[in-house]
Amino acid sequence: MNKINVKKKQVLQRKGNLNSKAYIVESGLLRSYTIDKNGKEHIFMFGPEGWIVTDYASGDEPCDLYIDALEDSVVIQIEKNDEIEIDHKKILKRIRVLQKRIITLMSASAIDRYEHFISTYPTIVQRVPQYMIASYLGITPEALSSAKSQRLKSRK
Amino acid sequence: MNKINVKKKQVLQRKGNLNSKAYIVESGLLRSYTIDKNGKEHIFMFGPEGWIVTDYASGDEPCDLYIDALEDSVVIQIEKNDEIEIDHKKILKRIRVLQKRIITLMSASAIDRYEHFISTYPTIVQRVPQYMIASYLGITPEALSSAKSQRLKSRK
DNA sequence: CCATTTTCTTAATCTACATTAATGTGTAGG
DNA sequence: CCTACACATTAATGTAGATTAAGAAAATGG
Known about the structure:
Chain A is built from six helices and eight strands; from the N terminus they run E-E-E-E-E-E-E-E-H-H-H-H-H-H. The first copy, chain A, has about 160 residues and is of the alpha+beta class. In chain A, a hairpin with a 5-residue loop joins strand 4 and strand 5. Chains A and B meet through helix 2 of A and helix 2 of B. The structure holds a DNA duplex (30 and 30 nucleotides).
C-alpha cells in the first residue's frame, strides 16, 4: 500500500502498460480514457474521492486505458492481486454501472445521456470542462453545447 | 442449485423483477436485453454454453434486463448470494469485456464493431439471426446488411 | 493585472446511420 | 407439399450528430 501525491495532468498509467495498478482516490479527481486511431480521446470514467480507478486488465495483460489526474490528488496505489480481495459488493455495483452505461449508449440520444449524467454525477459536472463530459457521453463538445441550448428552450 | 430445462423463446426474467437470479448455461443459448421507451430491443449479451447470464442488480433492486432463450437450453439457476462466491477472476474478466464494449461503442464505426464482433464471437454469428447481431452492435439490421455488402466490395 | 491559452458557443455543411417501404428468400409446421 | 411467417436485402429519403471554422468568454500563469 503506497500513498502518492499526484499533480494535475500527471499520467499514472498508459495504454499498453503491463503490471498496471489500481488507484484508490483519497482526494482530488482522476480519469481513465482511451485514445482511438484518429487520436480522439474517449473518457471511460471519472474517479472522484472514494472511487477506485483501474483498468481491469489482469496483471500480465497490456491495459487498455490511460489514467491521469484532472486535479491535484492523493491516491493509494495497490497491486491488482491485493485489489482482488477488495469489497466484492463494490465490484458488483461497478458492473451494474457499466451495464447501464452500455444500455444508455445503445438506446439513448445525446441529450438523454446528458440529462442522465448530470442527475447521476452532479458534483462532477462542476469540476470538469464540458468537453470532457462530451467525451464521456460519446459525443462532440459542439453537439453537447447545442443539446444544452435546446434543452433550455424546451423547458418553458 | 436448480437445474432447469428451458424452451426456445421462454422468458426467464423480466425487467423490473426483484430477486432476480443468475443462470449458468450448460447447453443452448440465452440472451439478455432491454426494451427502450420506443419499444426497441437492445441485446446486452449472448450466453452460450459455459457462460453466466445475469443482471447485476443486487437481490433487492429491480433488474434492468430481460433474459430469454434463443435455443432450447439447460441452465442452472442460482441465487445472487451464492453467485457472489463464484470465481472472482471470471468477474474481473467480465468487467474487462464490458470495458471494451463501452470503448468500442464510443469510438468505433458500425462496420468496425461488426468486424470486431465476428472475430470475437465467431460461433455465435452462426447461431443467431443477423438482426440480433445488429441489435447487439447498436445498429439497425438494414445498416448491418449494407455494411456487410460494402465490406465484400472493399476486400478485392 | 495583462497576455496567452483553454474552453465554449454558434452556424454552415457533411455524413453515417435511421427510417420507411417494397421485394426476395428461406424454412418450419400443418 | 404448401402456406405462412420470419429473416434478409435494397433503395429512397430523413435526421442526429460530426466536422469545420470563427469568434467570444473564461481560466491560468507569469
